[in-house]
Specification:
This protein is of the alpha/beta class. It is about 45% helix and about 15% strand.
């Protein structure tokens, strides 16, 4: 399994799962570009990749803004000539119950997760087309498999990522480009901690108590690690995964094992 000398772009690559994926790709020999909205976090991730011997390029950008995505893609192509791998990891979450009087959080969560993935794939695609090789990995969630009350926007967006993945995979299959989604369970990241704190507050219990309840509901009785998610992404980006496309693969510790389909 190798991504040696492949050119990868990881959105939301400054923190959490995105940072872990960028580090893992670089460790396997890929040249990695990372983008995100927070320059200081991107710089920190880039330093970690460089310190590990990797080649890295950090470009601040908001994936919901097409001109900024265009700058990212153009910068990567000017630097390294092409883009072989796109990891649509940038995401946003938060409570959006149906009685929330403010629509902006709903719109923002859908914009980052869905429109951001669409724009990045759309603008990277011309640089994969005609090369005979391309890998697009869209980060969904177990909340793309089932619903959670109060998280209407996030569940909708992550379900939408699965439809986007399936449709795009069929559209580009004959070009040697594969498109897959990864659906993690709880992973100990800032976004997960936000969800734990929000839900605990709604339930009127301490965050640590809800964290224990959430872990108890996972059959393996622990959260998944960033490294476990990143390892799957690296495999899906490799030549060995060329026959895997249009799939949504769970890293769920068994949480979805009892579901049909």
């Amino acid at each position: 399994m190798t991504v040696q000398d492949r050119i990868a772009l990881v959105t939301g690559g400054g923190t959490g799962i995105g940072r872990g994926i960028a580090l893992a790709l670089a460790a396997q020999g890929a040249k990695v570009a990372i983008c995100g909205r927070h320059k200081e976090k991107l710089d920190d991730a880039a330093h970690a990749i460089y310190a590990g011997g990797g080649e890295v390029l950090a470009v601040p950008a908001d994936v919901t803004r097409r001109p900024e995505v265009e700058v990212v893609v153009d910068t990567v192509v000017r630097r390294w000539g092409q883009i072989d791998i796109l990891v649509n990891n940038a995401g946003a979450s938060g409570r959006t119950p149906i009685d929330d009087p403010d629509d902006q959080r709903w719109l923002g969560i859908l914009d980052v997760n869905l429109t951001g993935s669409y724009l990045c794939a759309k603008l990277v695609f011309p640089h994969m087309k005609g090369t005979g090789y391309g890998r697009i990995i869209n980060m969904s969630s177990v909340l793309g498999r089932f619903g959670v009350p109060g998280y209407l926007a996030y569940c909708t967006a992550k379900h939408g990522i699965l439809g986007f993945t399936k449709a795009l995979a069929l559209e580009v299959a004959e070009l040697g480009i594969t498109v897959n989604a990864v659906c993690p369970t709880w992973v100990d990241t800032a976004m997960a901690r936000q969800g734990i704190e929000e839900t605990a507050a709604r339930l009127g219990i301490p965050p640590e108590m809800f964290r224990e309840q959430a872990i108890a509901a996972i059959p393996i009785k622990r959260m998944a690690s960033v490294e476990e998610v990143a390892s799957l992404v690296v495999y899906l980006c490799s030549p060995e995964a060329a026959a895997i496309t249009g799939q949504a693969i769970n890293v769920c510790g068994g949480a979805t094992a009892g579901m049909a389909g």
